[in-house]
Specification:
16 strands; six-stranded parallel beta sheet; ER; 9 helices; 2 domains; seven-stranded mixed beta sheet; NADP; Rossmann fold; oxidoreductase; alpha/beta
Length: 324
């Protein structure tokens, strides 16, 4: 038996229940993992609220790191005792132990602790595809990053600096601005006090930025479009404030023949070779100390309700993990 967070209906954090579950043995292509740390991500709230559909009742969570305890028939890439991490479906990472498909696993280098792996796998791979696949960012480019003091934000700014990219970040408070600057943000806009698009134009001699990376969604969409330079790209990779509004084609022309994309991590790690390449580069930077993973919140797994409340309130910074 193991313990896990499950939910039987969509709604507020209060729908999350701490329960005993039967784990069982791994089947064809599966492994059984004992978790050492579990990641807390905004995507978890999307499932809980129903923005992302799931068959109920369901487990919660898409990211964790731990040790393989048993492997099922047909599993050749892993064996008991291996240190692994993962992100993505199926749901169920909020658990002390679970069975899942081996194809989703990524081996953890010895230099990376379990907590760091659980805090960085989704955020780091997201940053990896944003910077290495979506747009061919070059040294000297200027980009705008919303939520610059968040988990993705702090990894992104450090990685962008390695590439010679100038980052303008948005945050909600001076405290978060200090965190963003400490992790490589060149300029910071406190969006609760300043008009983002106007400040971006001021900082770029009226031209705008090459790319806007927007994980906020509904409340930032308009300012993100207005912050782009001619033929720039708006990357809407999250919806923390709600889904982006419907897009009229003429909007794109009137804002400088700009582009909009709404990518999902799953489509950038679906190919095993591409997932291996993206994760290898990420792990290399972290293991070498070029990118630091900021774990600024730790919770007990049975405290998931409070963790979700903190996350949705905007009070967290950096990465958050559940530990045992």
């Amino acid at each position: 038996m193991a313990k896990a967070i499950r939910y039987y209906e969509i709604g507020s954090p209060d729908v999350l229940k701490w329960e005993w579950i039967e784990v069982g043995d791994p089947g064809l292509g599966e492994v059984r993992i004992r978790h050492e740390a579990v990641g807390l991500n905004f995507a978890d709230t999307y499932y809980r609220t129903g923005l992302y559909p799931a068959a109920l009742p369901a487990g919660m969570g898409v990211e964790a790191a731990g040790i393989i305890e048993a492997v099922g028939e047909g599993v050749t890439d892993f064996q008991p005792g291996d240190r692994v991490t993962y992100t993505g479906s199926p749901l169920g990472a909020y658990s002390t132990e679970r069975v899942m498909p081996a194809k989703h696993l990524i081996a953890i280098p010895e230099a990376i602790p379990f907590e760091i792996a659980a805090a960085m796998t989704m955020r780091g791979l997201t940053t990896s595809y944003l910077l290495r696949r979506i747009w061919d960012v070059q040294a000297g480019d200027t980009v705008l990053l919303h939520a610059a003091a968040g988990g993705v934000g702090l990894i992104f700014t450090q990685w962008a600096k390695l590439l010679g990219v100038k980052v303008i970040g948005t945050v909600s408070s001076e405290h978060k601005a200090e965190i963003a600057r400490a992790n490589g943000c060149d300029e910071v806009i406190i969006y609760t006090q300043e008009d983002v698009a106007s400040r971006v134009r001021d900082m770029t001699d009226g031209k705008g930025v090459s790319v806007v990376y927007d994980s906020i969604g509904a409340t930032t969409f308009d300012s993100s479009l207005k912050s782009l330079k001619r033929r720039g790209l708006l990357v809407c990779f999250g919806t923390a404030s709600g889904p982006i509004p419907p897009i009229e084609a003429m909007q794109l022309a009137l804002n400088g023949s700009v582009y909009v994309t709404r990518p999902a991590l799953a489509d950038y790690i679906a190919d095993p070779a591409e997932k291996a390449a993206l994760s290898a580069e990420l792990f290399e930077h972290v293991a070498a100390g070029r990118i630091a993973i900021n774990i600024n919140q730790r919770y007990a797994l049975d405290d998931a309700v409070r963790a979700h409340r903190d996350l949705e309130s905007g009070s967290t910074t950096g990465s958050s993990v559940f530990t045992f």
